[in-house]
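**Tokenised fold:**
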Amino acid sequence: MATRDELQQVREDKIKVLESAGMDPYPASVPRMHALSDVADQAGELEKSEEVISTTGRIMAIRGAGKIMFVVLQDGATRFQAVLKQDVIESEEKMSLFKDAIDIGDFVSVTGPLFTTKKGEPSVLVHDWTIASKSLLPLPEKWAGLTDSDERFRKRYLDMLMNPELYALFQQKARFWEVTRSFLKTEGFLEVETPTLEVTTGGAEANPFKTYHNDFDIDVYMRISVGELWQKRLMAAGFPKTFEIGRVYRNEGSSPEHLQEFTNMEFYWAYANYRDGMEMTKKLYQTIATEAFGRTEFTTRGHTFDLADDWAEIDYRDEVKKQTGIDVLESSEEDMKAKLDELGVKYAGDNRERLMDTLWKYCRKNVAGPAFLIHHPKLVSPLSKSCPDNPELTERFQVILAGSEVGNGFSELNDPREQRARFEIQQKLIESGDEEAMMPEWEFVDMLEHGMPPACGFGFGERLFAFLVDKPIRETQMFPLMKPREK
């Protein structure tokens, strides 16, 4: 088997052949009257018009080597055939040059009218061609493709090129976010941009990435939420409905549901509460399902659910007690740890907040959904308004699908006194070594003291998309982070 260097040398020799014929192997532009997709869509009309067109594509296959050659061109998801005939092409030299210097993987421009082959395949009858870009390494084998997972992620461009299903996945992901954005704009929400570098991370419980700001001579953090505390400032500024779709960063472990960098959406809605948010969220998810996927029923992680069904409401405290016998408000930390040990569930940290959260995560795997988890304990909801009938619980809701949380919202806490007290609790957790506790943001409290209207906030991340296509989240990112190869 030829080595990489040997394969590359063969193609570099072909570059010399092209250059000797007066053809630039890497021109800035080439003839292109129509995109290949337009040629495929309008093939019948173009053939009837007998119009001579120019189009471009990457060569994915070549058949024949005598007086006629069949070439498969690809551009994006579109494939279309070009046919080179010795008695039709501009010159015998141009036919010979194609045979001698062109390989699978090269980009070319072809010019000629459309016709239909004897086998009924619409094709470009090539009168002339030119190189658009010469490839120096071959593409993966058609049937084997890239089989090593590490190689697939490192050479994602080849993975998408050779795998039409993967290419379609990212088109669908773009549609997923397009539908989300369109829905919110239709509902009157203003799209905004908030800082990705923060002095204090806020809006979630997560370990941030830390970096350094040379000009200010200070440490700063990559954001862990899509501007939650900033969008609430916009509520105070008089913006009634805002949303943002953007990247967030969490310096934590990877799993089929978690990555360190991903896209989130968050919206904030003045004069709405968590019940309003639940209705809006249900409508949003159903719109995403029908407009981005064409269906409402999904099978994910061994669970089947239909977003068009009634959405159950699950009370946090009641569900944990039903499944484990533990009352998250009344049971002691020792009882919680004993139950987790009994269940064989590992837990990080032994403070009450972490133990509550771990117990719920054990319980949620049994919920197929669609469901709203409601009334979380105040301790695990530092930014949520308390329930009027029980101040230890909050007006919070999470979307549960296939045993996992794929959306989080609540009636936003706007009492500056209560917010200050809750941040002080979070500060004590941080000082005790809890890396997931929320970093207090005292200037946010200052904003609340100036006044913020009642509001509902809600957000979800690209984990929702990964769930709806039933793939690990890493598979749904175009270019997931990879460790550098060892030299």
User: Anything to note?
Assistant: The chain has two domains: 4-139, 160-311+369-476. The radius of gyration is 29 Å. The chain has a mean pLDDT of 93.
